[in-house]
């Protein structure tokens, strides 16, 4: 298992002009040693962390030895968003969570990569918030990423997403059990009515006191409350609405013309969070000015969480990008 490592970032000024004398950036490296193989950066989602594979690895079905993103061939780097609490530093780092933006996190990730003497990336991939940060990384360094792969995400926060971030923020700041209660609401955004019907179908627990859907929601609220700090949740939720905040449509088109990255948009047809409609619109805009843009759609009843469930489809979508490149390199 990869150990948690740290890079100290000094004299960092946030987008809002707030100066940070020091920020610790924690990360893990999997697969090949840095400097010996193509680098894949994996960005975690809202309540995720850098443990992408191994025990409690949240993308074990996609990444690992002889998997689609093969740890036997690639160097895989995953940074923790500062303040996500995986390093136990949440309360110490976050005095005002609204100071930070997704672009700040992208800048920190690039700072970390430069500290590791990495300038060029084979791929940046991330789901949900991690996909938004991947977009921001590409905006900052449009010629230093070969493959940009945002999954169940988009280059900007939609009005729908911003509205739900506000609801989450109100719960987190006003509830007596903020993390617990906010998670109940969030889980309904990550799934769909069809997904919940297929899973529970109005059944009750053995004691008949609660519907199984109620027990399931309460379990997820308790589970997150036990492992995630309130300040961390406030920050991660806030970051969602800042995706693309400093990039207008004209700048987005300029990026699309300038970038050397091959862009792989992957949406979920039933996503209530980053909707497929928004991704299709992004694809239509991009393909007018960039021929290296691909659009794929995961078919699922499970909504936003399908990027953590429908691994067979996701592997099939990504297989050509990662496996073909690996085979070509070995043959050469």
Report the CATH architecture of the largest domain: 3-Layer(aba) Sandwich
CATH class of the largest domain: Alpha Beta
Order of helices and strands: EEEEEEHHEHEHHHHHHEHEH
- Overall mean confidence score, pLDDT: 94
Helical percentage? 40-55%
In the CATH hierarchy, the third-tier topology of the largest domain is known as Rossmann fold
Can you say what the CATH homologous superfamily of the largest domain is?
A: Alpha/Beta hydrolase fold, catalytic domain
How many domains comprise the coordinates?
Answer: 2
As residue ranges, the low-confidence spans are none
Radius of gyration: 19 Å
Structure classification: alpha/beta
Largest sheet: 8 strands, mixed
Within the largest sheet, what's the order of strands?
1-2-6-3-7-8-9-10
Number of continuous helical runs = 11
- The CA-CA distance between the termini, in Å, is 31 Å
How much of the sequence lies in strands comes to 15-25%
The count of strands amounts to 10
Shape: globular
Active site: 128, 271, 304
Protein name: Homoserine O-acetyltransferase
InterPro entries: AB_hydrolase_1, AB_hydrolase_fold, HAT_MetX-like
GO molecular function, one term: homoserine O-acetyltransferase activity
